[in-house]
Amino acid sequence: MLTVEEAAAFLRVNRKTLYEAVRLGSVPGVVRLGRTIRINKSALIGWVQGNGSPALGEKQ
User: Fold this and answer.
1) Percent of the chain having pLDDT more than 70?
2) What is the pLDDT of residue 58?
């Protein structure tokens, strides 16, 4: 499980961009523990490898 900061570094995106994607439900493997957000690394890797949608932060 990754923190949002770790996942943002892994994806090479801004932390705020990833928080917004989590809020919109665009990121798989998100687990909320109270106010804490964790992201499953294997779900994130699978999503990155098979993601056909625009990159995070990119306008459609």
Assistant:
1) 83
2) 59
